[in-house]
Amino acid sequence: GAVVSQHPSRVICKSGTSVKIECRSLDFQATTMFWYRQFPKKSLMLMATSNEGSKATYEQGVEKDKFLINHASLTLSTLTVTSAHPEDSSFYICSARDGGAITDTQYFGPGTRLTVL
Amino acid sequence: DQQVKQNSPSLSVQEGRISILNCDYTNSMFDYFLWYKKYPAEGPTFLISISSIKDKNEDGRFTVFLNKSAKHLSLHIVPSQPGDSAVYFCAASFSGTYKYIFGTGTRLKVLA
């Protein structure tokens, strides 16, 4: 099946610093990637949709200046949490849609646990 | 407003028996539905999907049923195995938008 990787898997940072999370599709070209956030014991909340070569589309309530998304190639999207604060601590998960597939199935990365001190 | 709901936060089933996980949705415009399995600190793993033009899809031990009039879908796992213990999320989508709306998840525990 399609494989999506995320790096890093865990990151701890100080308040006020910026953190970059990478999401890669390893064996397919992802025209569309998605970034989700999951709070403990809660559902996955879609933060933004990222299309290769264009600006990301953010969901209502998500600060685009705080969560910078770049989708520069068909296999890589990055999420940068700028000026991180403790309330940004969460589990961030990306997913990718196979641009060559006829179905809408998304394949998820393993997630990144961000802890802001 | 939760458009996709999984009203049972947890479910325990004996090994070998059937597990039935339920999901309800409110928007009749959803036309593509999926089930994902998730372990702690990992990303969701795709299990099975169904388009709104069908009412059943089967893949090995997993079967998804869709009742459009009731806006309800369910995942049946038979026979259940201890390795099936995980959190199961249903998701709904409008085809062409590629955006998923996830349910709140049901934690399945299969007892040996």
What does this entry show, briefly?
The complex is a heterodimer of chains A (117) and B (112). By secondary structure, chain A is mainly beta.
Characterize the structure shown.
Chain A has 117 residues and is mostly beta strands. Chain A has strands spanning 4-7, 10-13, 19-25, 30-38, 44-51, 57-58, 67-73, 76-81, 90-98, 106-108, 112-116. Chain A is built from no helices and eleven strands. Chain A is globular and about 40 Å long. The termini of chain B are far apart. Chain B is globular, with a radius of gyration of 13 Å. Chain B is an all-beta fold and 112 residues long. The interface between A and B is medium-sized, with 25 and 21 residues.
Question: In terms of topology, how is this protein built?
Answer:
The complex is a heterodimer of chains A (117) and B (112).
Chain A: E1 4-7, E2 10-13, E3 19-25, E4 30-38, E5 44-51, E6 57-58, E7 67-73, E8 76-81, E9 90-98, E10 106-108, E11 112-116
Parallel strand pairs in A: 2-11
Antiparallel strand pairs in A: 1-3, 3-8, 4-5, 4-9, 5-6, 7-8, 9-10, 9-11
Chain B: E1 4-5, E2 10-14, E3 19-25, E4 32-38, E5 45-51, E6 56-59, E7 62-67, E8 72-77, E9 86-93, E10 100-102, E11 106-111
Parallel strand pairs in B: 2-11
Antiparallel strand pairs in B: 1-3, 3-8, 4-5, 4-9, 6-7, 7-8, 9-10, 9-11
